[in-house]
Amino acid sequence: MSSNQLDKKSEAWSALFSEPMSELVKRYTASVGFDQRLWAADIEGSLAHAEMLAAQAIIGAQDLADIRRGMATIREEIESGRFAWKLELEDVHLNIEARLTQLVGDAGKRLHTGRSRNDQVATDVRLWLRGEIDGLSTLLADMQRALLGVAEKHADTVMPGFTHMQVAQPVSFAHHLLAYVEMFARDAERLADVRRRVNRLPLGAAALAGTSYALDRERVARTLGFEGVCQNSLDAVSDRDFALEFAGFASIVMIHVSRLAEEIVLWMSQNFGFIDLADRYCTGSSIMPQKRNPDVAELARGKSGRVVGHLMGLITLMKGQPLTYNKDNQEDKEPLFDTVDTVRDTLRIMAEMVEGIIVKPEAMQRAALKGYATATDLADYLAKKGVPFRDAHEVVAHVVKAALQQGKDLAELPLATLQGFHAAIGGDVYAVLSLQGSLNARNVLGGTAPAQVRAQIARHRARLQSVG
Ligand code: ARG
Fold first, then answer.
1. Burial of 99 (0-12, 13-18, 19+ CB in 10 A)
2. For ligand 1, mutation pick of 32, 121, 334 (most atoms within 8 Å of CB)
3. CATH 1.10.275.10 fits 3-113, yes or no
4. Fold annotation for 370-464
5. Annotated active-site positions, please?
6. Residue 338: CB within 6 Å of ligand 1?
7. What is 118-365's CATH number?
8. Could you tell me the pTM of the whole model?
9. Mean pLDDT of 164-171
10. Which of 35, 144, 405, 406, by CA, is between 20 and 30 Å from 208?
């Protein structure tokens, strides 16, 4: 192909084609509208390939110099928005290669030696994704730090813990937030694990079977910072399981975010009133002047849907694809790109919002008292005095019933009343009926006692010190 022919690729892939593509087919098959996002990875991969070709004496030193010069120009053109992307050239790879040939002539045409777009695109996507993964792992650490920042101030703040959305037992608000820190910490572990498998080099697989040129794949892998080389050429060009894994990670992290967002929405509602959000994360209503809506949290919750949808899309994309590369794979990009964008923006905005949360400890405390959150503590108290736990459980049910009828909290019932339910109850009972007493009592590893919570915060802080 002369540079002129490559420019009009759609009109003739090669001498074999006798009619041009229709406009619709051109539009339908082109990916340049979205895959131009891969440009930096494409150039980086091409330069590594070219260096290796020169080192192996497959191309000349002058060719390599020309390719480097041309790529530097292309980089500038793209960065400054002057690069003319052409739909006729289908994708990011052909656009860059055609421009390179225009700029440097034959050296540009030698770049594709021992390479196919099949191993090229797989390499580009992995390189690009690796960079995004590194950005996301920093954001996951930021998210954890934001939660820790609030937790640090609220180890002693008591809120009702819920099961079945019913008040269950008092918990430290910090303990509640630390549950999310655990989730995001596991997400970060998962992401690091995904990265190891993303970070392998397909280049050298060529179209599908490998190549007859004496390529040094290990060298290219080293240049590009890949941890290893894909060991089977057919697998290298065809599988996208690394993208599926990433989408799996992304779906899980979005589900975690969604649960947190849901709680923020609930907590901010008038019925809970546990927290308030800074105005900048809320919107008003065009009709109801009193409204301040937690739109950011709601959107974060809602956006989990699209990310889980992308996981479904990507998995289905792979189903039934015979080995090796099929054009189906071009459909991996938009879901993958949108997944990255959505997770990135969501983590950023949620971390910011969490940092600015306004906590209302009195409302939390009131809610915990109202729900008889220390009933289990009373049962445990009786059990520790020798009453079999099942019997103690039943006694306390009667106490709660009476307290409900009188509209009183357990701690407000006089000792004589309490003793009427069981003779083992003594004056020391009030220590366990208080919210703080209940909290302090759960001094087991992983429990909600403020001492445990503070130890966990310190552990998380130390763990996060080594992360970006
Ligand atoms: N744009 C293509 C993709 O994203 C590049 C690979 C095309 N290879 C091919 N043989 N048509 O998958």
1. buried
2. 121
3. yes
4. Ribonucleotide Reductase Protein R1; domain 1 (1.10.40)
5. 164, 285
6. no
7. 1.20.200.10
8. 0.93
9. 95
10. 35
